User: Which sequence fits this backbone?
């Protein structure tokens, strides 16, 4: 796609994979941009700090929640979508509860049907959500963080695509070494970073161990069935993989007894997820994280066309929930020990 392609150039085009959305109309299909001075434009925003204030801030970018048959971009005023975004705080961002202050902006994210095109044919639409996140992060830095606390960046799926793309462009904390020093770590789980990306911005670095800081943690979870890697839409050939059971980037297998606990949340009782110790073993194979020795495979159903059976993308956080929680604590401790 030509980088000069505009929203107007997309007028009347039907975009979408595996099925197309209606013809794109810039007047109708672009909801208003968020105003981040308005608290309603934030998914979660600590109203005030108390004695329980944490020493680190998290900037959370939620995954794809928009999947209807007609809407190109999330209208952040939609109550149903706001509720779905809030659920990501329960299922995923809760790994930071009690460890960091969580800030999460609403943003005009893509419909899942144009996710495969967001860096190509649908890029002008994708850029609107990027503009929202740039504005949100700037507002967060100036008005909430104020340079007073180190920062964790965290995301999943579409959120991770957006975070990685912004980092490649020098956004977030990746514009200079001084800003990067504020980064505890970036958990961009459910997407890919390649050597080409590191060359695009040399400030991007992949985690090397459990207490590394100023680095990225990422992986895409799949089964060991033949050919599954090719079915993972977020897996890019050549991507790095950080194994969340042993925090290595090589092919060293990590047995299930290193899995501190999976957590699968239920809408009817979100405070009490189903928990399983030693849920699965994990090993980097090719460009993905392959899990085996799964104790409760019924917790990993195939529930979407986008992520078929054996592509465990929806459970990237759930399968390694307690390992991620502990790792957040480990990296915060390591960071604070350096300053």
Assistant:
């Amino acid at each position: 796609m030509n980088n000069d392609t505009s929203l107007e150039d997309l007028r009347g085009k039907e975009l979408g994979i595996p099925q197309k959305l209606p013809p794109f109309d810039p007047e109708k299909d672009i909801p208003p941009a968020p105003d981040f001075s308005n608290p309603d434009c934030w998914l979660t925003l600590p109203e005030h700090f108390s004695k329980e204030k944490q020493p680190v801030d998290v900037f959370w970018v939620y995954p794809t929640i928009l999947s209807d048959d007609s809407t190109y971009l999330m209208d952040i005023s939609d109550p149903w979508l706001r509720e779905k975004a809030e659920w990501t705080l329960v299922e995923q961002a809760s790994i930071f509860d009690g460890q960091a202050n969580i800030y999460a902006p609403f943003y005009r994210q893509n419909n899942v049907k144009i996710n495969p095109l967001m860096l190509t044919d649908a890029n002008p639409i994708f850029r609107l959500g990027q503009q929202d996140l740039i504005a949100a992060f700037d507002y967060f830095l100036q008005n909430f963080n104020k340079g007073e606390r180190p920062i964790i960046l965290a995301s999943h799926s579409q959120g991770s695509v957006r975070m990685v793309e912004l980092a490649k462009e020098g956004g977030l904390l990746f514009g200079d070494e001084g800003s990067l020093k504020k980064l505890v770590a970036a958990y961009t789980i459910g997407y890919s970073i390649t050597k080409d990306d590191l060359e695009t911005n040399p400030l991007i670095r992949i985690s090397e161990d459990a207490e590394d800081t100023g680095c990225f943690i990422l992986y895409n979870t799949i089964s060991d069935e033949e050919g599954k890697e090719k079915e993972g839409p977020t897996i890019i050939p050549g991507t790095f993989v950080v194994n969340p059971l042993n925090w290595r980037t090589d092919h060293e297998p990590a047995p299930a007894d290193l899995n501190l606990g999976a957590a699968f949340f239920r809408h009817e009782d979100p405070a009490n997820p189903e928990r399983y110790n030693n849920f699965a073993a994990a090993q980097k194979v090719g460009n993905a994280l392959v899990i085996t020795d799964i104790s409760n495979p019924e917790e990993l159903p195939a529930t979407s066309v986008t992520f078929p059976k054996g592509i465990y993308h929806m459970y990237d956080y759930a399968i390694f929930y307690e390992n991620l929680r502990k790792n957040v604590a480990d990296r915060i401790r390591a960071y604070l020990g350096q300053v």
Remarks:
- The chain has a mean pLDDT of 95.
- Helices lie at 26-29, 79-91, 123-145, 158-168, 177-180, 195-200, 228-231, 321-338.
- The chain has one domain: 26-338.
- Residues 26-338 form one domain.
